[in-house]
Design brief:
The complex is a heterodimer. In chain A, helix 2 packs across helix 7, helix 3 packs parallel to helix 5 and helix 5 packs parallel to helix 6. The longest helix of chain A has 18 residues. Chain A is built from 7 helices and 5 strands. In chain A, helix 6 links the parallel strand 4 and strand 5. By secondary structure, chain A is α/β, with parallel strands linked by helices. By secondary structure, chain B is an alpha+beta fold. Helices cover 50% and strands 17% of the residues of chain B. Chain B has a 6-stranded mixed β-barrel. The chains are: A alpha/beta, B alpha+beta. At the A-B interface, helix 1, helix 2 and strand 2 of A face helix 2, strand 4, strand 6, strand 7 and helix 9 of B. Strand 2 of chain A pairs antiparallel with strand 7 of chain B.
């Protein structure tokens, strides 16, 4: 009798054990990454300008352009489109880049013109007016606009365009941001300058 | 005598010699455990091997490429596709309507620029590279040749999550076992929009995607697996510009299909039909058929081993029952003297044998599952150390049922001769023996 009861008890215990799922020690099946939080409508960043803005994803050493470094600071759901073109002046910004940017419904726009206006001999008042038109066009679709201009590089001509950029920003209510300047080249500013520019822009937008 | 009465007498008889009953049950249990464990392991191994062959996809899966069939490759498992051919909605609808087709899962792709994080595993920095985003309906992944190696799949419709393949790991010099090191990385992904001006670089629309998993996938070429919505967004952006260059995935509405036939036997027929529609197909049907043949042989051998063990246990029951009949001759005589018929005596001993078989079979089935799980854990330890996916022994209810029922029937069969001998004992002779 006792032997039978003991046998029944052993079988019952084994039944319970066999129906308890075996603990999986496989680290590969874990949901290690939590869901990516997406809060609110996505931010949309747009950059307009010339060579100093034109985004190359990174140089051969993997250094990221300033624009992508700014994008890194935005929310995971943010979208960034660069509408800058080579050799662009502020007038190109009005005619070509502004319509493209407006179609993207940006929430944040970064504008940087001046180098090719100066090289092309565009009169300073014309440059300022074109720049202001670009800013107003972006503001009309609800974007917060930052106007970038390099810190003084020495010449009086540079100073004139920089002052015009500042005035265009102030007259339109855009945010004026001084950034480290260096002559644009096809690959964009040097890596250290890219980071410094990104730091200045991120400080201006509070990221 | 009722069955209940027979059962009561049988139990009484077993209690008279508890030691012998326990040993007999133990012999049946061990044999049943062996049979259960072997069949469970064989079934799990079969599932795992076939899953590896199909890379996690269904056995009856067929990969359809956006390309014409190469006449020299028709019927081959890994047929090389011919010239590219647009795969549009009309073609998908036509393929979906073919007889023998159970399901069609579209695959879309887009070429993108990928900028990895500034610092990756081991502090290594990667430069940007071009690759292909493969977009699928994430809810349909069980129907695709996609298996998760690390982490998880992107959430359905997510625009901010991505799974990468081993190809991405190799960029960092990592192998499959180290895949967890890339989880949580954020990639910046640029979708190109071709410009009409000559030599003008494409305009890129950048988004971010967090790596949530590492997968092995054969749905389409590409190191990034994303929900189809991400690829559609990239394609919509690209469509605003100049037409894509030749060979670009965006040149076809769909870049491939994964067709699931209703049965494994119909795979060849469905492939022929899809070829007739004009698209190249590939499916590991020949490989699966060969693997199944070998697995059946293994299963047969293992089942035979378990069955032999059960037969040996059955002989033990016969021996034990014969001894019981010899010892209980007087009891048999008394039963017959008070009116029990031969059939009643037969019933008592058959029930007794059946009880031994049933209890032994049940205990053995449970023990067999435990052994199979233990073996599974040991195997998993080895597989994961090699960077491979583990196995997950399922609770084989059919095998358990066959084991218990089979043990019971075998025991009854083994107890038949002793039971007949007991039933035929003359009453007077049985009573007079002592």
């Amino acid at each position: 009798m006792r032997t039978t009861r003991g046998l029944v008890a052993v079988v019952a215990a084994a039944l319970v054990l066999s129906f308890v799922p075996a603990c999986s020690t496989s680290r590969q099946a874990t949901n290690a990454v939590p869901p990516v939080a997406v809060a609110g409508p996505p931010e949309s960043l747009v950059t307009l300008g010339g060579d100093e803005t034109l985004v190359r994803p990174a140089d051969d050493d993997g250094h990221r352009s300033w624009a992508l470094q700014v994008f890194d600071a935005l929310a995971p759901s943010a979208v960034y489109t660069d509408v800058a073109t080579e050799d662009a002046t502020a007038h190109d910004g009005v005619v070509d880049q502004l319509p493209r940017a407006v179609d993207l419904a940006p929430t944040l726009a970064v504008v940087w013109f001046g180098y090719h206006d100066e090289r092309g001999g565009v009169p300073v008042p014309t440059f300022e007016e074109d720049l202001a038109r670009v800013v107003r066009g972006l503001q009309a679709v609800g974007a917060r606009v930052l106007v970038l201009s390099p810190t003084g590089t020495g010449t009086s001509a540079d100073a004139a365009y920089q002052a015009a950029a500042r005035h265009a920003a102030e007259s339109t209510g855009a945010t004026y941001v001084e950034v480290p300047g260096s002559p644009p080249r096809r690959g964009g500013p040097e890596p250290a300058t890219q980071t410094a520019i990104a730091t200045a822009v991120r400080a201006a937008i509070g990221r | 005598m009722t069955w209940r009465g027979a059962a009561a007498l049988a139990l009484k008889g077993l209690r008279r010699r508890p030691g012998r009953a326990v040993l007999t049950v133990l012999a049946v249990a061990l044999a049943a455990a062996l049979l259960t464990a072997l069949l469970t392991i064989a079934t799990t191994a079969e599932t795992r091997v076939l899953s590896e062959v199909t890379q996690g996809g269904p056995l009856a899966g067929i990969k359809v490429a956006a390309a014409s069939p190469d006449p020299t490759q028709v019927g081959q498992d890994q047929a090389r596709p011919g010239d590219p051919r647009v795969l549009d909605g009309a073609a998908v609808a036509r393929i979906r309507s073919l007889p023998g087709v159970d399901e069609v899962v579209p695959v879309v792709a887009a070429r993108v620029v990928v900028v990895p994080p500034a610092a990756g595993p081991g502090g290594k920095a990667l430069g940007p590279f071009s690759d292909t985003e493969v977009g699928v309906d994430i809810t349909q992944v069980p129907r695709l040749p996609v298996s998760v190696l690390w982490g998880r799949l992107p959430a359905p419709t997510s625009l901010t999550e991505v799974a990468v393949t081993e190809g991405y790991l190799s960029r960092y010099g990592l192998d499959r076992a180290q895949g967890g090191q890339v989880l949580g990385q954020t990639l910046v992904v640029g979708a190109p929009q071709q410009q009409t001006a000559a030599n003008a670089p494409p305009r890129l629309r950048w988004t971010k995607a967090t790596i949530v998993g590492v997968v092995a996938q054969d749905a389409s070429d590409g190191q990034l697996l994303v929900p189809v919505e991400q690829v559609q967004a990239a394609r919509e952006w690209g469509a605003l510009g100049a037409p894509p260059p030749a060979g670009d995935p965006a040149g076809s509405p769909y870049n491939g299909l994964y067709v699931v036939a209703d049965t494994l036997d119909h795979v060849a027929t469905v492939r022929t039909e899809i070829t007739a529609v004009g698209y190249s197909t590939s499916a590991p049907e020949n490989l699966i058929a060969s693997v199944l043949r070998y697995l059946r042989v293994v299963e047969l051998v293992l089942t035979s081993v378990g069955a032999i063990a059960l037969v040996v246990a059955g002989l033990g029951i016969t021996n034990a029952m014969l001894a019981a009949v010899r010892e209980r001759r007087r009891e048999i005589g008394v039963l017959k003297a008070i009116g029990a018929r031969d059939g009643d005596v037969l019933r008592v001993f058959l029930v007794e044998a059946g009880l031994l078989g049933a209890v032994g079979g049940l205990a053995g089935a449970v023990l067999g599952v435990l052994v199979a799980r233990l073996v599974g854990e040991v195997v998993n330890g080895y597989l994961t150390s090699q960077g491979l996916r583990g196995v997950h022994p399922a609770l084989p209810l059919a095998i358990l049922a066959v084991t218990v029922v089979g043990s019971t029937l075998l025991a009854i069969l083994a107890g038949t001769v002793p039971a007949i001998r007991a039933a035929r004992l003359p009453a007077r002779e049985a009573v007079e023996s002592s």
